[in-house]
Amino acid sequence: MEKSEIDPELDPCSAQFNPEKALKVKHIPTTKNYKIFDNVQMLQAAAKRINNEIDTKLLTEGIFVRSGKKVEENPDTVVRKFLPHQGLVEKKKSARHTKNLLVRLEAGYEGPLGTLKKLMDDHVKAKIYVRKEHGVRGSVTGYIEAFDKHWNMAVTEVEETWTRRKLKFSQNDVIFENSISSEVARQKLRRMGIKIPEIKEIKSLNRKYVEIKRHVPQLLIRGEQIVLVVRLEES
Q1: Residue 19: what are its φ and ψ, rounded to 5°?
Q2: Distance of alpha carbon 124 from alpha carbon 144, whole angstroms
Q3: Alpha-carbon separation of residue 155 from 128, 130, 131, 193 (angstroms)
Q4: Residue 27, by phi and psi: left (phi above 0), alpha (psi -120 to 50) or beta?
Q5: What phi and psi, each to the nearest 5 degrees, are found at residue 200?
Q6: How many other CB atoms sit within 10 Å of the CB of residue 126?
Q7: CB atoms within 10 A of CB 59
Q8: What average pLDDT does the segment 149-174 reach?
């Protein structure tokens, strides 16, 4: 009987050999091409040599060979299962270029900055007092559209109010020879495409000071100029 005709489960040399089934069969088919060994030691040596050949074949068909070169991966190869703390370290995405003003505003703030965030979310007008070299210069009223941790603010629909000395009581008494009038300066700025907000109202407070008001569509206020922020309740 040829070896190809033998049931693989009854062939001792087959990887599908089933010993339980072989014990229940009265006559196990054999091949004529078997080798007779003189003793058990020779049989063990031959079996060990065959096992080494099988291991070499599996390594060659697997992921790596003994030479260290990578070959085609076998999907049936056993893969080690790592525990969560034994696996590869996942690379975290750098947050360097993902942090910006809008992301920080969505995350929210606590304390005084949290109150500013509430003013911005509720879209309520706020009165912002600004400073000068020595004291308070005036105030700015409008809607806070954005701000940062340094209190720099972007405000829209701005009504700016500030005080200054009257011209005859001005502290700047120096008159330059090449000085030009304010109207000539405005004309030059218009030709350059720069539009200065018009002054709405000038009110005399006392003998030396006047109060000036003007409307500005939008304004950026530096945090170092802010003295106080007050919520204005809508009437």
Answers
A1: -65, -35
A2: 8
A3: 10, 13, 17, 23
A4: beta
A5: -85, -40
A6: 19
A7: 13
A8: 80
**Residue linked to tokens 């299962």:** 81
Q: For residues 59 and 66, give the distance between their C-alpha atoms in angstroms, rounded to a whole number.
A: 7
What span, in angstroms and rounded, lies between the C-alpha atoms of 122 and 118? 6
- Eight-class DSSP state of 13: T
Structural domains in the chain, CATH included, are 3-61 (no CATH), 106-231 (2.30.30.100)
CB neighbourhood size of 209 (10 A): 13
If pLDDT is split at 50, 70 and 90, which confidence band does 175 have? low
Cross-strand partners of 18: none
Pair of tokens at residue 74: 């076998």
Beta-carbon-side half-sphere exposure of residue 132 (alpha carbons within 13 Å): 9
Residue 227, pLDDT > 60, answer yes
Encoded tokens for 205 = 């407070």
Strand pairing report for 209-221 and 199-204: antiparallel
pTM for the whole thing?
A: 0.51
Full 3-state SS string of 123-145: CCEEEEEEEECCEEEEEEEEEEE
Mean pLDDT calculated for residue range 44-63: 68
Nearest to 28 by CA among 8, 45, 43: 8
- Per the document, the length of the chain is 235
Task: Give the separation between CA 126 and CA 161, rounded to whole angstroms.
Answer: 13
Distances in Å between the alpha carbon of 83 and those of 58, 63, 86, 146, 192?
26, 21, 5, 47, 69
